[in-house]
Every structure is written in structure tokens, then in C-alpha cells.
Amino acid sequence: MRPRPEYPRPRLRRPAWVNLNGEWEFGAGDSPRFNQRIAVPFCPESRLSGIGELSGDSVWYRRAFRAPEAECLYLHFGAVDYRATVWLNDEEVARHEGGHTPFSVDITQAARDDLNVVVVRAEDRLSDKTYPRGKQYWKANPEGIFYTPTTGIWQTVWLEPLPRRHIRGLDLQADLDAGAVDFEVAADGEVELVASLDGAVVGSWSGPAGPGRLSLDRVLPWRPEAPRLYDLQVRLFYRGQETDKVMSYFGLRSLGTANGQFLLNGEPYVQRLVLDQGYFPEGLLTAPSDTALRRDIELAKAFGFNGARKHQKIEDPRWLYWADVLGFLVWTEMPSFHEHSAAAEARLIAEWREAVVRDRSHPSIVAWVPANESFGLGEIDEAARARFLVSLYELTRTLDGSRPVVSNDGYEHALSDLCTLHDYSGPSEMARRYRRLGSTLEPSAPPHLPFLPGYRYRGEPILVTEFGGLRFEDSGGWGYLDVSDGQDFVEAYRALIRALMDPGPIQGFCYTQLADVEQECNGLVTADREHKVDPALIHAITQTLKEN
């Protein structure tokens, strides 16, 4: 069976496509060599690739395909880490930089009617810490909080046959208060949009392609407890004839902050998040199947969490689709660089822009996190650090003004819509620290400064977005706090949650973490997703009511 056979772009769907996953020729080195076989879309460092080892800074892929009949043909790459060059039939057709975001190329002119050969070179210099690489380690052997790196293709490669006049893109922004959805259709011609709910048409719009607003007859909000989604059909017409049609979906929900609280659909809402790093023992950054992506969300919900902070990873769009469908809040966080330079800043900004534009129509995403714990910024002075963080905040707000932006998750915030703290103290210290605002934000507690000089707390909701990290003391690996057995785990978890939910300023949390990752053994489940403790016991504690 072809690996990862599901449609890779759930927010803009057409029935006709060709999946190019599966066996490709593969090789490593500065010049093209194809002396191995690899299973795309799994990176060569993963077991599922069939290779399972580091392959060097440059890798090469090659495969043949027959082009489907089409007026226009696009070649899509979900993600290639880090710098990709693509040739078709010995002609260079694309270059892309950025290891976590997609790119596409129109290959209509380069493709042949018979057999075509595509070659991909991926360059990912392991020692270069100026690349935005997140938790991928820059040394051969993973250690501490860093893991086996990912090189080359790690998301689906596919062909899309299109009509000459087609819909190039679709952006959706729901307006719950107005009972409408604002849209922008990138196309040339007239368009018709039809929204439906439970199979019944609830709104339509027609006019020239571009921006518009579609009003709805029935208005049902999206929230984790009832993730109502509207189906959307978009048709393109030229001179009265339909030339293209795509299917999409959207959810209606609003986000805001007031009186130190996070608001979902106008009401105070406690975010009970779990840290999710999106690593899989057999596929690393690539889930072995679409079912595995869905299962991670179902696991988190079984433990009582209503969302996840996707840590240092721009996740596969299929995971975001399941978050939309299942009702699961998402914080999207940009993978950091780990050595500062002007080039590092430019690389992160460019890739972050692509990520936000790709994902801003997902109702499940409720916060943007362009930086974490000053990763890569420790060696520059505070003024330069603040300048960069403010530039990321302002860029993100420009790209999407509807969601809170966390300038630097964990500590040393500049401008920020949420005040987020990381604290791996034990339960008694946590209980003392989070009873009143003064003790919560004093310079010595939590362990890192919450704000850079020149910036201060302005009444933002305060959330503890890393804490816990409980590890069974005989399990090997490492964690932040040790427990002896299952009962000890449950009681320690209860004490930690009580420390946050008892009267005080904290309005939400993110527990570390959902699953073990390689040498880091502080997950609620093992790396193979086996329960360490009874989810029902943890669920009841996670859902502890906030006391005011």
C-alpha cells in the first residue's frame, strides 16, 4: 500500500490528483547519486524510510511518472527540509527554502506526454544553527531536549491536473458576530460560493473573484465541545461556463481577551492544553498514517485536554484538519533557530509568513507563537532581542489580526497578547507562586523574567504553558519531576493542577507533555502511544474547575 495515501490538502480539495509517495531512488552527497531506495514521504533518518540513518548535508531523490492528461499540471511538495531544488526532465523548475512549509510549481511546459523524471536535491546543513530547526539536533546523536533531525522530503509529494483557468487559492475568515464568512478567491473570472450545514444550503454568494462576504442563514459556533463545521463549495466561471470547482470548510468562532481572561465566542474559557511535539518513533516528524495523527488528538482529549501547544513544529495540515473536525484548540509555534544572525532572522520571518498564510483559515488555531524561550536570541543584547520579537509580533498581527499572538512563549515577552510562563517547580512551590499576581510576576519567580526591560504586564491573560514533566523514576531517560508509581503520578498531577486552578491569576495551562520523545520520558503515554496511567483519572483532574 502506498504510504500516506490520504488527500494532503484538506482545506482546498479536488477529486483529481496523483499521489507520488512510495519508492523513489535516493542518494547522498554533493553530486547526484541514486544507489539506494527510499519510501517517500519519510525522511532518511527514520525507520519507515527504509534507510534509518543520517545521510549527510545533501540528499537526492529521483522517480519517474506518467503525467495525467491536463491543460495545466502542478507538482506539490508538502514539506522538504531545508533547501530544495527540483528538476523535471533535466530542467530546473523550482527552488524553495524553508523546512516546514509547502511549495508548488506549474510543470505544464516542462512535462512530457510520456514518461517524466523528477529529481529533487535537498540541502540541510546539520551544523548550521541559523536554520529554523526547532527540536532537530545539530549533532549526530540526540540528547537533552533535542532529537533526531529530519532531512529532505517529509510530507506528501503529489500531482494536480487543473483546467487552464482554475482557482489558485482560497482564504477564509469567519465572523461569528456577523454570522458571515469573509473570503478571498484567487482566480480570474466569476465565482459562486455555496455554504451548507448538515447537508442544507445556508448561504450563497456570486460575483467577481477576489474578496467578498458570504452571509449565513444559520449561525452555529465552533468550539471544542461542539465543533460545528460548514461545508463550502466554490465554483469558477469564465464566459458563463464552469471551469473549476473546489471544496472547503470553515467554522464560526471568535477569540478575544478581557479582564485578564481568554474569551472563546465571547465567553471566558480556560484552555487546558498539552504540549505536543509531533514526533513518532518510526517516522520522526512524519506520522506513519493519517490515523496516527487523529489518534494523538483523541489521546489528548481522553486525558481531559481541550487543545495542544504544538511545540517547535509546523504540523502536517492533516493534523490541523482533525483538530478542526474533533474540536481541539491549537497553538501554532514556529520552530526556532539556535544561533542568531541577520540571515537567521530573515529565514525565520519568511517561513513564518508562509506558515501563517497557509493555516490562518483553520478554526482550531487560537494562538500564534513565533518564538519560544528566546531560543537563538540569548547571545544578543536585550534591545536587539526586543526589536526582533516586536517585529515578529507586528508581522503576525498584520497577517492575521483575529488571533492572540504570544511574542516569546515562556518568558522575556515584548509586545504580547497573552502572558505565558514556563515553570517546572514542584507542586508546593507552584501553589505558593500562583496565588496572587505579585508573586506570579516577580523577577525571581517563575525562574525567568516574564518581560524584557521596557515592557510590562498590561492585564493580559496569564497562562502557565509548560509545567509538570512527570517521569517514572525507573523508566530511563529523563523528565522534570520524578514519581514512583501510578498512584504517585496521579497525586502529583492533581497537586500541580490544583496549584494553577485554585484562586489566583492563572487562566489556563499547558502540561508537559503528551508523549515521550526519544530520550525524553515525561509523557502521559510512551513514544509508541501506550498509556502510562489511566486516562479517566487524569481526565477528571485536568477538568478541575477554575476557582476565582
UniProtKB/TrEMBL annotation:
Protein name listed in UniProt: Glycoside hydrolase family 2
Domain Beta-mannosidase-like galactose-binding: start-end pairs: 54-127
Family stated for the protein in its record: Belongs to the glycosyl hydrolase 2 family.
One example GO MF annotation: hydrolase activity, hydrolyzing O-glycosyl compounds
Keywords of the record: Glycosidase, Hydrolase
Domain annotation Glycoside hydrolase family 2 catalytic: ranges: 292-425
Organism listed in the record: Candidatus Dormiibacter inghamiae
GO biological process: carbohydrate metabolic process
Domain Glycoside hydrolase family 2 immunoglobulin-like beta-sandwich: 203-253
